[in-house]
Amino acid sequence: TEQLAASMPFNATKPFEHGFANGVQPQQGAKAGPPSRLPTGSTLSEENGSEKTGSIATEGRNSTIEPLDRVRVDSSGQMLTTNQGVRVADNQNSLKYGTRGPALLEDFILREKITHFDHERIPERIVHARGSGAHGFFECYEPQTQLTRAAPFREAGKITPVFVRFSTVQGERGSKDTARDVRGFAVKFYTDEGNWDLVGNNMPVFFIQDAMKFPDLVHAVKPEPHHQMPQAASAHDTFWDFVSLMPESTHMLMWVMSDRAIPRSYATMQGFGVHTFRFVNDAGESVFVKFHWNPIAGTHSLVWDEAVKISGADPDFHRRDLWERIESGAFPEWELGVQVFTEEQADQFSFDILDATKLIPEELVPVRPIGRMVLNRNPDNFFAETEQVAFCTAHVIPGIDFSNDPLLAGRIHSYVDTQITRLGGPNFHEIPINSPIAPVHNNQRDGAHRQAIPRGRVSYEPNSLAGGCPFQAGAAQGFVSVPARINAQDEQGKVRAKPEKFADHYTQARLFFDSQTPVEQDHIANAFRFELSKLTVPAIRERVVAMLRNASEPLAKKVAMGLGMDPMPEPLPLALAEPAAPEVMKSPALSLLARPGDGSIKGRKVAILVAPGVKGKSVTEIQSELVKQGAVARLVGPRIGPMPSVDSDALDADASLENEPGFLFDSLVLPDGADAVAALAKDGHTMEFIKDHFRHCKTILALGQSRELLAKAGFPTSMDKSLAQGGTGVLLAEADDAASAAVAFILAMSRHRHFGREMDPPLL
Ligand code: HDD
After folding, report:
1. Same domain, 622 and 732
2. Residues with Cβ < 8 Å from 389, sequence gap 6 or more?
3. Which residues span the membrane (predicted)?
4. 128 Cα: distance to centroid of ligand 1 (angstroms)
5. Is 443 one of the annotated active-site residues of the chain?
6. Is 73 inside a domain boundary?
7. pLDDT tens digit string along 216-230?
8. Tens digit of pLDDT for each residue in 243-264?
9. How many domains does the chain have?
10. Which residue's CA lies nearest to atom 27 of ligand 1?
C-alpha cells in the first residue's frame, strides 16, 4: 500500500486528501489541470494559491469574464442530470407503483427537483429590492497618483472591470421601474488591489443626516404595515408624516419631487457617491473628494403622466432599456468626475461637508473628469449576478478612505451585515459575482457554503508552521486608515449630537429650487401637489407646506393653491435662526436641462405608424436614417404583419397599436397614403398615440396627408403657424421630401422634449 501511495494518490485532483501528502507531488490525472504549484511537504504559503483564490489579475484586461468562466454552465448538447451528475432518463413522470398507484418515497429524482425548487427564493434587499445590472469597465484618463494611490486611477488608459446595479428604493423586487423614487447607482470596481464598491444614488444628497434615522425613514416610506400599500410609491401618509417632522429632509424632497426621480433611462441619469470621501496618495497625504457620474447621453427624464402609463404597459421599462441598449451596441457611458478639496477649504464652507443633506455647488468646487465607465455586457443570469451581487460601502481599497459623515458610518456596518441574512452567511464574498480578482489570503475559516478549500493546518497569525504566511502587507502595500484628527474645538468626548451647521435645513433646498428652469420648477410643484393630494390626513399636508415656506415661498404658494389650501399655514420654526450666508445663490449645474448630452439619439425609440395603403418608400427612408443614428425605429400597425404599400414592397409591422402603446416611444412618425391615413383615423389607438406624444412634449413628424390625423386628435388650430415652422417639435413634411424631413426630425428628437407646448392641466 505504501508503495502504491507513494506513486499514485487516490484522486489525482485531490492529492492530499488521503494522507499521502508528504513528499508526494500530485500526479496529472484526467482532470488534474495544470501541474500543482504546491511546494513539497510545505503547509501553506503565497505559492499555494488555488485558481479560485490565487491568480493575480492581469492589468489592463477585462478579466471579469475570466474568473466567472469557471462557474458558467452551458447545457447545449448536454444530457439532463441530477445535481449529483446522474443522468435522468425521464423528466415527465414521477416513480409510481403502477401507472395508477401511489408515488414512491424512493424517487430521489423527484424529491431533489422539488426540494431545490422549494428553496429557490432568497430574501429580497430590504431597500433597493428592484434593480438591474450590467458588466463593463472603467478607463482612467490620466494618472491621479498625486491625489490617490487607488488602483483604478494610477495610469492613463488603465482598465478596471466593473459590475453596476441600478435600482429603485421603495418597491419590492417585482415592482415597476418608473415609480417616483430615488435610483440606486452602485458600482463594484474589481481592482487589482481588491474590490471597491461606490454605492451611490442618482441624487447627490440624502433624506437624513444620521444612520440612526435610517430604519425610521425606510419604515415610513415602505408600503404601510397594516395593509401593505402603496407599492413603489411615496405618495402616502406615513412617508410624508415622517419627512414633515424631519426638516433636514427638505433638500432631498426637492430632488425627489423633481424629474430626477423619473429618469428616461438609467443611461440618462447622473450618479453620485453622496458622502464626502477621502483620496489618499502614496505619501499618505489625504484630500476630500466627492464622486459624480455624468452620462454622455445627457440627463433626460420622463414626465409624470408618461411614467404612470408606462408602469402599466411595461413595468420593466428601465430594465428593458438597459438590456436593449447593451444588446444593440449603444453602450451606456458615463464620465467619472471628482470634486477635490482640502480640510482647510471645507472649514470655510457655509455648510458642513459631513452632512449628507448638503452638496457642494460645482461653482464652488468644479467637477473634474478623471475617467469613463462603459457598460458593454449583459449578465448571463439575473439571479446569479444581479440578485447575488453584494455592494458594501465598507469595501474600499488603498487610496480611498472615509470621512466622518455619520450617515456613512452606519452604512459601513449595514451593508455587510445585511448580506449575511440575504445571502445566507458570511461567505458571500465567495459568490462568483462578488469575489475579487485580487487574490484573497487570510485566516478566516468555515461558515455556511464555504467554497475555497484552504490548505494546511495553520489558520492563525502569528505562526511559524506556515513560515508566517499570510503575512501583513505593511503600510506600503496594505490599507492604512488616514490618521485624521478631529479639529481642536471639537474635542468634546462622546456625544449624541450634531454639529451646528447641520441645523441649516433650508438654504440648499432653496438653492436647488432657484437653480431650476421654470419648466422644472412647475414639475416640482406639480409633484408636491400630486403626492400631498394622496394623503388622508390634512395636518400632514399642512406641515409639508409649512416646511416648504422656509425653503421657497413661491413654491409653497403654488403647492398650497394646487391643494386648495388658503390661507397657508405659518412656516415651521427654524432650527437655526441665522444660517451662514451661502456662497452661491444659484447653481445652473443643478438643472437637468443643463446637460443635454452629446446630442445623439442613440437608444431612442421611434414609432412609425403604418397601415395598408401606406406610402412605404418614405417610411423606409426615414426608418433607415434613424437606425443609422443608433435609434430604434419600429413599424407599428393596426395589427402586426405585412402592410401593403402603394409605392414599394409591403412593410412588415413588428408592433401593433395595441401591444406597444404610444407612450413607450420617444417620438412619432405619421405616414402618408390616403388609405393608410383613413385606416389609422378609424382606430382610437392612433388618437391616443398622438395625444400622448403631444402631451408628453415629444417630437412628432406628420408626412403628407397624415396631418389630418393631428386635427382629428384635437391639435389646437392656434398652433398651425408654429406647426408649419416646426418650432414646437411637431413637424409637417411631404412624403417625397423624406430625406430632409428625416434630418429635421432627428435634430428635433435630439432636443428630447419640447416643453414649450406643455400645459397644466393638459390641453389634450
Ligand atoms: Fe443604502 C442598499 C445607496 C443610505 C443601508 N443603498 C443600497 C443600494 C444603494 C444604496 C444603491 C443598493 C445596492 C445594490 O444595488 O445592491 N444608501 C444608498 C445611499 C445612501 C444610503 C446613496 C445615502 C447616502 N443605506 C443608507 C443608510 C443605511 C443603508 C444610512 C443604513 C444605515 N442600503 C442599506 C442596506 C442595503 C442598502 C440595508 C439593502 C440591500 C443592501 O444594502 O445590500 O444595507
Report:
1. yes
2. 133, 163, 165, 188, 433, 434
3. none
4. 7
5. no
6. no
7. 999 999 999 999 999
8. 999 999 999 999 999 999 999 9
9. 4
10. 411
